[in-house]
Structure formats: C-alpha cells, structure tokens
User: Fold DUF2229 domain-containing protein from Eggerthella lenta.
Amino acid sequence: MASPGFPLRAAADGPRRIGMPRALLHYRYGTLWTTFFEALGCDVVLSDPTDRSTVARGDALSNDESCLASKIYLGHVASLVDSGECDAVFVPSIANVGRRRGFCTKFQALPDLVANTFADQRIEVLSCLVNEVDEHKSMKDALIELATQRYTGPREAKRAWKAAARAQEQAERAATLRQMRALSQLEAARTAARRPEDAPLAILLAAHPYLAHDAFMGGALTDLLESMNAVVLFADEADRERSLQASFDFSDTLPWIVNREIIGAITQLHHRVDGIVLVSAFPCGPDSMTDDAIVRCIQGKPVLNLTIDAQSGTAGLETRVESFIDILRYQKKGGYVGA
Assistant:
C-alpha cells in the first residue's frame, strides 16, 4: 500500500510507436508534437505526403458534408493503420488556445471521429484535450498530463515539454526569417529590374497551413506560381503574434485564431505584394465567412479566391491562376490606369 501523500505512480503503458497524420494541425504543431514524443522515448511515424490515393481513401471513409481537409486527414490515418508501423495514432482534441483564439469544431471532434471510423481496427487513439477557455487547459498542460498518465513522471514530462517548446519556437522563427529573406531578395530584384514588369511578382498565399504546405492541395499551386516568375509568400510564415494582434483592428469578434492570423498577415504584407491568392478547402465554414470579408474589406490589391475540392482535374485552376498573373503583369505595365 502506498504511503499517505505518495500515490502509486501509473504504469508506463503508453504506446511507443506513435503515428502522426501529415494533415490538419500537423502543419502548425508538428514540430512540437514530434519532439515531445521523441523526448519521451517514442518513435514517431509520420504518414507519407498527400497524393491522389490519400484523397480517395479519405473520401471513401467520410460523409459528404466533411471538408476536403478532414477527408484527407482520415486518408492519412488510414495509411498509418494499414502500414502496421505504429501502435497508436496521436489525435488531440483542440478547441481553443484562449478567448477569440478558437479552432474549427472539427479539431475538437477529431478523436471521436477517428475512433468511430476505425473502430474495427486494432489501433489506439492517443489523445489529449486543449481548451483554455472552458477547461483552463493549455497545450502544455494537456501534453504533460498525457505524459504523466501514460509514460513517465512529472519531472521528465516537463523536460520533454521544454524540449518540444524550444524546437517549435525555433521552427517558427526559421520560417519567419526565411520569409524575411525572400522579401529582401524580392526588393533587390525589383530595384535591379530595368522595367517594373520585368521584376518577379510577389504573391501572398493566404490559406490554412494544411492547405498551403500540403503536397496535394497547395504544392501544385505554389509550383505553378513560381513557374510564372512569382515569389510566393505564405500567410502562416509572417510573425504570428503580430498577425494575431493586427487582426483585432479588422474584427474584434472573429472566433478562429488561424483565420485571424491570415487576416493579420494580409494587413502586414499588403503593401509589399502585388496580389493575394485566397485558398479554401470545400466546404470550409470559417473560410466561407472570412474570405468574403477579406474580399470586401481589403482594398487596393487584386485578390484571387480559389476553392479546392476532391476533383482530379487542374485545368480550371491553372486557367484562373494564369489569368490572374496576366492581369497583374498588365497592371505593372500601366494597364487599367484610369479605367
């Protein structure tokens, strides 16, 4: 029997091979989560980049009302389950990281969605709850609690968190510095160009990170823009805290943190880009509202609003992007002035 005040330590029965779907908030917190579990002595198995088979598998597992990003997430979980290389899949439930810093409800429901979708599979859904508003539980609190329940003692759990938080901070700083260097190189190219229309175009890709950086959803778009002599800047690689604070000048009531950061990045970079490409996954609820507000309220820059769905054809996308770039170059030459 344990002595009073010294409860028995929980058995370290946590799964050691952790599957990590390369989708949704992995593109925001992937470094944090991977480093945390590796610091606990786990092997992290990352699913392969999204391809057509991932989309098809996720689509078959989802209902019609699910957004494309959620379908792709299930496709990634399925690939991890089928691989047999992991004992559990990490699927956190994330409601918010503070007031007016919420996430779409799909992120809160993901553990239940995955558990029910793969109920017949012999795979554990490893989860934790992040909800600072209602539960007063931050990402730090949630991960440390998970670690102490399944893996180790409080001291080791806190040490793992510190390593993960440090790695996440370094990754975010590196992304911001990379974008700042791209802006500096862009300004140098503009200065060196003999004519304004000869300089590369600066395009701000304003989208959720899981769209902008996913090989299937955003990769082809980025490649297309770069092939047309455009420098692609990413909204999520602007300074997040500055973007978040700037968003409150746009709206005091907007509840979703990522949409806030996108809006704030647009206001920060508005004067440094030639055009803005808004990208949404069909049928995203938060984007359907905020994208409309951006198009109506952000003035002075051309905006191309794209919606990506599960269709395999890209001809329509290519035509719209090429037309958008042609319009921007025509403006560079002085077209539409006084029109």
Q: What stands out?
A: The chain has a mean pLDDT of 91. The domain at 200-333 is CATH 3.40.50.11900 (Rossmann fold). The chain has twelve helices and ten strands.
